[in-house]
């Protein structure tokens, strides 16, 4: 990012800019890493509101997790502010707050097409539970289930018949949660609705998801309910990159992941070290020196370009002085490490992309680029990540992506370095 203006004004902008960019870049990157390990086919939901660093951190996290590749959030305010799709389920407290089926006063539910009304949905649910328990393909699999859990599921389905997604691990997943869910889902099917699926929030997620999928397929076959075997299975419970990777290696039947604490708090790396440096004043380049070479700034106003190879992968980014001509496709370009003399390479790019665009021209005559909406930013983020070579984004020992400077900028950096550094004297 390049900021130009009166030095006092620009200096005041340092703290807000670095504050805004550090966390945004960090959590978006963390979200993108989770998307990479989960794969394109899985639905990812951000569940971090309760664990985020305050309400402002939670709102920011929802926005930037969506930008980094997540599909939805449980944060209703973030959904309202940014147009992010909302997803979520009821809580364990909701399930345990019910004592019996008698606590459901209104049991009526209109068919999805509105043609008729089921006067006692709860009785329909109980009939289906008996059918499941007596089914030949499921014989001796299910016994008595927790009736208070069944009451909670039935009540939730009456309120949300088109989006019934049940949390099934309050008491016992396979002995109670799954048969109770299936009974309610089959009753909804009789009335023209399709249940959304289940959520697993504890236990052996790989094993439970596989066993649950077997039950869903058995019910589809036993009662001839097309698509029941493909019911969505969502997993949560303190998930992170490592646990999702482990699930992938074990084999599982999870379709969607709800990720919270490790995502929004960026547990594996708490902060990002973005910096803000003066590089030119009154058209005179400036440099900040340090005994730590990594902290030496790169002087003067610059332009940045991404150079792509024959296979479409980006090879290297290059910074040039604003006065230099732009690099061109098919042109042989010397790319140099800004500080290490021996690290250099010629690159012949097949495509060149300029990276810096002016979004706030101030009083200048520069054309202003329109900042795209959040959905387009998300799409671009995903497209850019897909262009990277696999070795750059692998989890173990990734190849660092190279950022270089032009030969002229390299020479100028070292000229200014020698000019500004005091010469020592030995006696």
UniProtKB/TrEMBL annotation:
Which family would the database say this protein is a member of?
A: Belongs to the NAPRTase family.
Q: Which NCBIfam families match?
A: NAPRTase_put
Which intervals hold domain Nicotinate phosphoribosyltransferase C-terminal? 301-412
Q: Ranges for the Nicotinate/nicotinamide phosphoribosyltransferase domain?
A: 193-295
Q: Which EC class heads this enzyme's classification? A: ligase
GO MF annotation, one:
transferase activity
Q: Does the keyword Phosphoprotein apply?
A: yes
Ordered alphabetically, the record's keywords are: Ligase, Magnesium, Manganese, Metal-binding, Phosphoprotein, Pyridine nucleotide biosynthesis, Transferase
- The Enzyme Commission number assigned here is 6.3.4.21
Instruction: Kindly list the cofactors needed.
Output: Mn(2+); Mg(2+)
Task: Name the job this protein performs.
Answer: Catalyzes the first step in the biosynthesis of NAD from nicotinic acid, the ATP-dependent synthesis of beta-nicotinate D-ribonucleotide from nicotinate and 5-phospho-D-ribose 1-phosphate. Helps prevent cellular oxidative stress via its role in NAD biosynthesis.
Give one GO biological process term: NAD+ biosynthetic process via the salvage pathway
From the UniProt record, list the reaction(s) this protein catalyses: 5-phospho-alpha-D-ribose 1-diphosphate + nicotinate + ATP + H2O = nicotinate beta-D-ribonucleotide + ADP + phosphate + diphosphate
Gene3D superfamilies for the chain:
Aldolase class I, nicotinate phosphoribosyltransferase
Its pathway is:
Cofactor biosynthesis; NAD(+) biosynthesis; nicotinate D-ribonucleotide from nicotinate: step 1/1
Q: Which GO terms describe its cellular component?
A: cytosol
Entry PTM: Transiently phosphorylated on a His residue during the reaction cycle. Phosphorylation strongly increases the affinity for substrates and increases the rate of nicotinate D-ribonucleotide production. Dephosphorylation regenerates the low-affinity form of the enzyme, leading to product release.
Protein name as catalogued: Nicotinate phosphoribosyltransferase
